Amino acid sequence: DGGITQSPKYLFRKEGQNVTLSCEQNLNHDAMYWYRQDPGQGLRLIYYSQIVNDFQKGDIAEGYSVSREKKESFPLTVTSAQKNPTAFYLCASSKGGLAVRMTGELFFGEGSRLTVL
Amino acid sequence: GESVGLHLPTLSVQEGDNSIINCAYSNSASDYFIWYKQESGKGPQFIIDIRSNMDKRQGQRVTVLLNKTVKHLSLQIAATQPGDSAVYFCAEKDRGSTLGRLYFGRGTQLTVWP
User: Fold this and answer.
1) What tens digit of pLDDT does each residue of A102-113 get?
2) In a mutagenesis test of the A interface, which of B50, B53, B98, B103 is the best target, namely the one with the most A β-carbons within 10 Å?
3) What is the spatial distance between Cα B57 and Cα B75, in angstroms, rounded to a whole number?
4) Which of A33, A57, A89, A106 should we substitute to test contact with B (largest number of B Cβ atoms within 10 Å)?
5) Residue ranges in chain A whose pLDDT is less than 70
6) Following DSSP, what letter does each residue of B34-103 receive, concatenated?
7) How far is the CA of B67 from the CAs of B38, B56, B72, B78, B92, in angstroms?
8) Secondary structure of A43-103 in the HEC alphabet?
């Protein structure tokens, strides 16, 4: 079945360590996104990519890095520079991204919960 | 009975009743809105969307109403079921932005009692 796969579902990290969250989609979508969700809050955009080999900072990009070498994959690295990394991370994708008038739903993965010990 | 909440983080309704979840937005340039449902520990699921050139859109058991005059969006769920219990988010997009710039609200926790 087509969809978005995030891994790992749960991840524990010691302070000072970098971790990478995986996001793979087989929907042939051009655009991919990373959001962060904290308890009782809405989703906040970390990074997004509208096409392969290109990505843009979202609202809370500091302490995070991404790459988009393949259409299907958009991994997120949470670096040691991220001061409060414990959160639920959601990856999403959509058919298009470059057109301003483009509308359509974002398809979300099941999320990765990162806990810093 | 029917519970209506404005800017409330939680909403409790009895099974079989109708639910109305509200969302206010401040950007008059928003041209596209989406409602998502998120069950505990899972990713959000698309429910319904509406463009700013519409006032109402209906889906299966759900209706979205858009009032651009007061910048208000609502999601109506008919005959609410226990499986509808979840957090519901509204999201908006500015007409000058791509889909990558969706802004999500805090969400409303809907609890359905048998």
Assistant:
1) 667 789 999 999
2) B98
3) 10
4) A106
5) 1-2, 97-103
6) EEEEE-TTS--EEEEEEETT-SEEE-SSEEEEEETTTTEEEEEESS--GGG-EEEEEEEEETTS-GGGEE
7) 24, 9, 5, 20, 13
8) EEEEEEEEECCEEEECCCCCCEEECCCECCECCEEECCCCCCCCEEEEEEEECCCCCCCCC
- Contact B45/B2 with Cβ under 8 angstroms? no
Q: Is the pLDDT of residue B1 over 50?
A: no
Q: Which residues does chain B have within 8 Å of residue A90's beta carbon, measured at their own beta carbons?
A: 43-44
Pairwise CB contact (< 8 Å): A104 & B105: no
Of the listed ranges A75-79, B27-31, B42-46, B52-56, the least confidently predicted one is: B27-31
Cβ-based neighbours of B70, under 8 Å, separated by 6 or more: none
Q: Do B93 and A104 touch (CB under 8 A)?
A: no
| CA-based nearest residue in chain B for residue A91 | B43
> What is the total residue count of chain B?
114
